Amino acid sequence: MATAYITSNPGRELVASFFHYLEMRRETRARRAVYNQTFRELSALTRRELDDIGVARSDISDIAREAADLVR
After folding, report:
1. Which residue of 4, 11, 25, 44 has the lowest C-beta tally within 10 Å?
2. pLDDT (tens digit, 9 = 90+) per residue, 2-15?
């Protein structure tokens, strides 16, 4: 009598994919929250305050993006 063994579990792979999706979504939300907060705080500063910290208003988006990329 022959015996066949199934080595993969499609259900387990589906669950793992779902949890991976949830984790990626959580990370994306966290990065977006950091981006929004950084952008909002820097945008609220006056030109003089931005000059004091060495930031041009045109750089705010780039700085916020860099801050968001640090979230992992």
Report:
1. 4
2. 666 666 677 888 89
